[in-house]
Design brief:
Elements (H helix, E strand, L loop, with lengths): L10 E6 L1 E5 L2 E4 L3 E8 L3 E4 L5 E4 L1 E5 L10 E4 L2 E11 L9 E6 L1
Antiparallel strand pairs: 1-4, 1-8, 2-3, 4-7, 5-6, 7-10, 8-9, 9-10
């Protein structure tokens, strides 16, 4: 299978990748439009450190998407911060590889 099937990518979001901290706060890269699948509901998930958090929205993106923790994502008309970005990579197994992104 390889990557997440294109027919599942029914939505689009705008991603501004977090590039670090500057003298005036977070710095972001240029906004990029990404085809994805949006699951807009409150969910308990584990973040990148293993801590349990509550995400308002979870987005499933192609695995090669650049969207690290701290990035800004515009989804359904609202801007939200990325709380967790989890790579779901089957390592060559026939799985739908993708990037799972949890938003505040």
């Amino acid at each position: 299978m390889g990557s997440i099937p294109a027919w599942l990518l029914r939505h689009t979001v705008e991603v501004e990748p977090h590039e670090g901290e500057g003298p005036f706060g977070p710095e972001y890269g240029n906004a990029v439009t990404v085809k994805c699948f949006v699951d807009d509901k409150l969910q308990k998930i584990l973040d990148n450190t293993g801590e349990e958090i509550v995400a308002r929205t979870v987005i499933y993106m192609p695995l090669d998407t650049t969207c690290p923790v701290g990035s800004r994502v515009t989804v359904n008309g609202r801007k939200a911060q990325v709380l967790a970005a989890l790579r779901r990579d089957g390592g060559g197994l026939p799985t739908p590889d993708h990037l799972e992104v949890a938003l505040q």
